[in-house]
Amino acid sequence: MKLDETFPSWRAGSSAWHSAMHHLALPSRGS
């Protein structure tokens, strides 16, 4: 396995996921 290559990609995806969650949370809270 090449974890060294997949880990950075996973971190990038995780950041995008958290960013998306924040965008979804804003209208959900009715700000």
Automatic annotation (TrEMBL):
It comes from the Eukaryota. This is Uncharacterized protein.
